[in-house]
Input
Amino acid sequence: MAAILRSLPRTLLAGLGLLIVIILIVNASTGQWIRLDDPAWWAFFMRWLHVMSGVMWVGLLYYLNFVQIPTVPKIEPSEHRQAISKYIMPNVLFWFRYGAVATVVTGLILGHQMGYFPGALIFRNNYAIGIGMWLALIMAFNVWVIIWPAQKKALGFVPCPADEKPKAARIALLTSRFNTLLSIPMLYCMVAQQNAGL
Output
């Protein structure tokens, strides 16, 4: 087991394998087998991918805002702070950006499968999901158009004058906090559509 857990790819494959075993056991117990020709199953599968992507994206957003941003200033400005900027932040920002992309893409596919378009986006029906979609699209825009370019400057990934780095860091921080603010109603709207019928 330790050999599996020491490797992230092996851990993810083991998690997927465990999921398959659980599905087979449940299906065998209930006699209700997955039908790959059933559009409802594919909509459920896309919802699962959408939730997994959203957990990655919003989880990293919350990690940044609840853990890293408040903690890094407490670290002595030495090699430890540089290690965070050089090694941890590039990985965090990669998964953060592409978690946003995966969430939006799977959400759009799911929205199409569920027949939410175009009504939800123009608030003709499905108000909660429409509001949630717009909030998520604004958040994804912020990630790619504001936060990522500012972070590249602040962390020295791209050349910029030294006096621009603090400004870029402030823009990235405030936009990240704005996304945290938007995530609260966005998550409510996404859950309310499925569970409260709003």
Notes: The chain is about 80% helix and 0% strand. The mean pLDDT is 91. The chain has two domains: 1-33, 37-195. The two ends are 44 Å apart (CA to CA).
